[in-house]
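Hello Y.,

Per our agreement to keep a running log of every chain we model this quarter, I'm adding this entry. I've kept the format consistent with earlier entries: sequence first, then predicted structure.
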Amino acid sequence: MKRWGAWAVAGGAGLALLGAGACHTEPTVTHYRPFFSNIPEAQTGTPAVGDLGEGGADYAQVAPDAKLVVEKPDGSKVLIARSVHHLMRHLEHFLDEGESDQVIIDQLFSRQLHAHLGELGAEPQEYVDYLRRGRKDLALLFARLPMGERSPSAVFEKTGKRQYVLKITGTAARDLRWTRLWVVMENGNWKLTWVS
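Predicted structure for the entry above:
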């Protein structure tokens, strides 16, 4: 288990290379919403980027909880993560509730994460265990991203084709072990690539 420190460093450094191929992709900020940016005449050091959609609808209106988990007749569950916020909620639930870790591995981990763990000689279960041991740090990260990619003081940058990093900026990042959530869109659902 000591090798996780090296894996975390290698993983963080290797993320820029995942899926990059032979081309270089410039990071693009697709969403940044500073605190108070929705108040008329408010001034911030960095202007907002992206929009909140029609009327700035919150996630409860966009995708009610009842539609985030679909239970099949055989009792198995299909997780829906149409936003990074949904992915975060699924991760917290399945790490906390002691339900099958296989759901996390099969439905929340991206193909890139599986491939990267394979390159490191690690099993997906080891990364689930790593996240569970760092559950307090993950909770602190998620607490500072209360609306996922629409959170104040969060930057959502495109890092590759359907690949993004959601990172906390400014004073909100102080005293956090993890400040970045690396994600990718696969088959219409957000999946975890790495936490750093």
